[in-house]
């Protein structure tokens, strides 16, 4: 009985771990305050495949670059902030050319890391397992009053003519365009 429970738990945990190992990954654009400088951002790619293969990185359906990876040979790819960051209000709440789509013929892990002098983020893609039509976002309440304190949610559509509806949020939330 104990052995069977262990196998069930291990299988469940392994399926969670493998959910991020995929052939396609998407990274939604992010928002930053105007005037924020010192961006450094990279895409990190790795795989457990022994045979090397090429991964293609796209922005706005245009090839940005390709890189070869294999087990023991991960890659770190510089990503200009302009491919991922919306800095001006005019770049938010609209379809834009920002965001990344990363594709390969074999499964791989992908994460995007960026930093500014006093802050850093790591975003991990779930790959094809992350596709769907209903999503939920949760975050800690922002109680700070400084102008640079915010929370962001990035949305990326993987198909043309996708309609995105944001609903069910606290009516006290104020979006960066001033609406609630």
TrEMBL record:
It comes from the Bacteria. Residues 1-21 form the signal peptide. Keywords: Signal. This is IgGFc-binding protein N-terminal domain-containing protein. It comes from Chryseobacterium lacus. The lineage of its organism: Bacteria, Pseudomonadati, Bacteroidota, Flavobacteriia, Flavobacteriales.
């Amino acid at each position: 009985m104990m052995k069977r429970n262990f196998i069930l738990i291990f299988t469940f945990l392994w399926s969670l771990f493998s959910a991020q190992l995929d052939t396609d990954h998407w990274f939604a654009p992010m928002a930053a305050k105007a005037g924020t400088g010192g961006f450094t951002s990279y895409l990190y790619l790795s795989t457990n495949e022994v045979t090397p293969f090429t991964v293609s990185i796209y922005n706005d359906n245009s090839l940005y670059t390709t890189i070869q990876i294999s087990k023991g040979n991960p890659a770190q790819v510089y990503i200009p902030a302009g491919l991922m960051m919306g800095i001006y209000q005019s770049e938010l709440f609209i379809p834009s050319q920002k965001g990344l789509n990363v594709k390969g013929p074999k499964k791989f892990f992908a994460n995007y890391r960026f930093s500014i002098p006093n802050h850093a983020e790591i975003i991990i893609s779930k790959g094809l397992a992350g596709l769907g039509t209903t999503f939920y976002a949760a975050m800690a309440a922002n109680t700070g009053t400084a102008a640079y304190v915010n929370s962001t949610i990035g949305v990326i559509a993987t198909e043309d003519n996708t309609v995105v509806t944001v609903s069910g949020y606290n009516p006290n939330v104020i979006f960066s365009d001033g609406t609630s």
